[in-house]
Amino acid sequence: MIDDDYINSLIKKNYDQLQSINKQLEKALAPLNLQEEIKKNLAVNKELSSQLEVIAEHARDVYKDLDWWAAAVKNSFAGVQSSWLNDLLRRVQSGLTADVIKLAKSMEAVPPRTKQALMLMAEHGWYLDLEMAVPYLFKIESVLKEGGIAQVDVALSKHYSERIDGIESSVIERHPNREKIIKAAFLAHRRGEYELSVPVILAQADGICTEEAAGLSFFRNRKGKPQTAEFVEGITINTFKEAIFSPLALVLPINIPEGARSEGFVGLNRHTVVHGESTDYGTEINSLKAISFLNYVVHIFDRNVHDVT
Predict the structure, then answer these.
(1) Residue 223 half-sphere exposure, CB side, CA atoms within 13 Å?
(2) Which of 4, 151, 161, 200 could form a disulfide bond with 185, CB atoms 3.0-4.6 angstroms apart?
(3) Within 10 A of 177 (CB to CB), how many other CB atoms are there?
(4) Looking at residue 127, what DSSP letter applies?
């Protein structure tokens, strides 16, 4: 499991080193009257520092950027004969490279581990909230693997109960045409009218998902998989994004079709709820699970955040 403190210490170490190099370059090259060129190259340096904050997703790209940055600085001073400058550039590359490679190797495990955690959560009726930290997600996975289903239900019920106002606002902000329906469903939840909130929230999540996935439905199967699997399989560049979307490629309790449900099936399932086959779905935890699915669907399709391929 990736140690969060270790990642933060590496980020801070690289950031501090880049800041120190900034000061050395400014001091050593000031007499050359090349301030504008210095500023341009230092801007790249500062941008690299900010990118270290999201290095979990782009570790290999950061390594490439480091090579480019060093080459850019060196080219800018091609006419300057300075063994000190050349030595400094060599130290910049070698010093940062070791830590970045080490961190990149650690981060290679993040997308598949995230995918596994999200799949396990979804199998128990819960879906990702983008406000969750990755270490928290991995903690949930570990507890579920140890059989702590009730413990996870309590923790995630608390999480989504505390987030309900923010979720409602964000859903309405992104889908204002659904405001009246969303408000009515969330009001029903707050009143404890779960028989009303659950089917409405699931129906809205279904509609939003189908709209965003180019008409592909998560609740209709094609060749043994939900139609949205085609959308997920089309994500070929960004492995972290593919991991986040991976539940939409699976047959899960919420979307398992009639013929595939085992005898005595009791999970939250859209078909059994909407078509009146289930009469005991009206519980707080099922309503919170429906809200978690709606929140997940709305925010993973938020292009301002995730369309990075």
Answers:
(1) 5
(2) 200
(3) 8
(4) -
* Mean per-residue pLDDT pooled into runs of 10, the chain (309 residues): 53 62 60 50 50 48 46 48 58 56 56 90 96 91 96 97 97 97 98 98 96 94 92 79 91 91 88 93 98 96 54
What does the pLDDT read at residue 72?
A: 47
- Which residues are bridge partners to 225 per DSSP? 222
Q: Which helix (H) or strand (E) holds 221?
A: strand 221-222
Domain boundaries, the chain: 4-107, 110-306
Gap between the Cα atoms of 36 and 43, Å rounded: 11
Bin 223: left if φ > 0, else alpha if -120 < ψ < 50, else beta. Answer: left
In 3D space, the residue among 213, 296, 205, 221 whose CA is nearest the CA of residue 256 turns out to be 221
Question: Which stretches of 50-165 are assigned E, i.e. beta strand?
Answer: none
What single letter denotes the amino acid at residue 20?
A: S
Which tokens in the block code for residue 101? 């490679």
Give me the pLDDT at residue 304, please. 45
Q: Which amino acid is at 244?
A: I
The pLDDT value given to residue 2: 46
CA distance 65 to 71: 10
Q: CB of 291 within 8 A of CB of 189?
A: yes
Whole-number pLDDT of residue 235: 81
d(CA 183, CA 227): 29
Q: Which residue type occupies 146?
A: E
The continuous run of DSSP H or E covering 270 comes out as helix 270-274
pLDDT of residue 258: 85
Residue 198 near residue 286, CB atoms below 8 Å: yes
pTM above 0.70, yes or no: no
